[in-house]
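WARN no homologs supplied; continuing
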Amino acid sequence: QNQHWLQIPKRSPRPLPSALTVFTDAGRKSRKAAATWKEEEQWHSQVLTATDRDSLQTLELWAVVWVFCKWVTRALNVVTDSLYIARIVERIEEAEIKDLQNKRLAQLFI
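OK structure emitted
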């Protein structure tokens, strides 16, 4: 008897109608990342400052990780202009994380 787990995906290819929408972005020159969202007719934002180990890609990833950590159980629409992040999010549910040379990147994935 072959039995397989049937996993319910946590990601949707289309926006969720009743979910909170959060916009993320990062700047190479400013060395900052931000998440912005609107709740109860009021805009909010969180600014994250890069560490010495951050690249633009790790800053973008940090912003998205921050969003998912802040709203662990809430349905979210996350908007990013980073193709790097969009591709990671598409694949992360079924990915196996290998030993990474970039310790900061490894820290964000775990």
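The chain is about 30% helix and 25% strand.
OK
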